[in-house]
Amino acid sequence: MAGECILCGKCLEICPLLAATGREELGPRAKADLCYLLGRDEAGLRGADVARLAGLCLGCGRCAAVCSQGVDVPGLVAGLRGAHPEFRHWLWRAWLTHADALWPAGSAAARLVPESLRPDRFGSLLRMLAGLGREPGLTPFLTPTTFPDTHRGEPVLLFPGCTATLVRPGWLAAARRLLDGLGADILPGDFRCCGGGLKSAGFANEARNMARHNINVWRGAGRPRVAVFCASCQSALRGYGAFFEDAAEAGAWQSSLIVLSMLAKDIGFALSGAAPERIGYHRPCHAEGADSDRLLLAAALGDRLVTATDRQCCGFGGVMRLGAPELGDQVGRVCWDRLAGAELALTGCSACAAQLAAAAPRGVAAGHWLEAVG
């Protein structure tokens, strides 16, 4: 796959890491070349060097989306990470597979470290960890007022994702209120992690186990619609294609997945006095198509939505956040430059929400758009 690169440069135009640093050796084409060279001579680099180079990728997937040759650099990088794991990869695996125990404990520990004592290199990471407590986030300012009848009685599974399940129950409560207002029949479903973060870090077996469990939940519920409110989870769920009985079932799964804001697009909202005057929107890297989250917010907020990102990545970067946080921070600063002037930044991805809140300029808030729904 790596050998199919034709040096067109489309990936270089879209890579947030290259745009923020100006270092072409960090771009997708260099990683594709690395995979090609390793395929010819695995002994050409030490395992430690391969692991270090493979770690310098955000995993945003923008390069794969624009490649005319179908070169999936994040997929190639995940393969390198799986073949050459190191301590931070194992730490990342533990962080995701034991999230129920580690996230609350990690948040409590991070909050004990004073801001003045946080090392520059890991300051944003500690701020992100500190923000993983169960305290309420933003003050809601969007109140649903009118609901269409288009989904009344429709059976729906709600995929909450790890963040809403463990540390942001308010997101899940707001999502349920919207579906209840629409009259949807919310089915019980014991979903696990989407597996996207594990797959990107090279832990294919663990990601596969998550996928098979989630598919079985869907089958057991009668293969209904699955409403998702995290763009990264949505992207990971759409990548389950290899785990179905046949092509028909795989197609039914793809058709069942729907972004929550698509279901909610015709709900009428009223703004309360708590609504900021200047609100920004961050488009997640994994958002698809027209981005229904932004469309919903544009309709609800009107001229209060004053700025939005397009190609700018928040800088979260998954496992790269452990190995090269300073590069992620560079990417994040480009993102916040685009959002300059906003008092609040909203997004539709759990990872983006955490990273934006950790890197927000003083006096500026950030969160998932569901936090704004009362």
From TrEMBL:
Q: Which superkingdom does the taxonomy of this entry point to? A: Bacteria
- The keyword Iron appears for this protein: yes
Where the record annotates domain 4Fe-4S ferredoxin-type, the positions are 1-25
Q: Which GO terms describe its molecular function?
A: 4 iron, 4 sulfur cluster binding; metal ion binding; oxidoreductase activity
Q: Which UniProt keywords apply?
A: 4Fe-4S, Iron, Iron-sulfur, Metal-binding, Repeat
Q: Which Pfam family, just one, is annotated for this protein?
A: Fer4_8
Put simply, this protein is called 4Fe-4S dicluster domain-containing protein
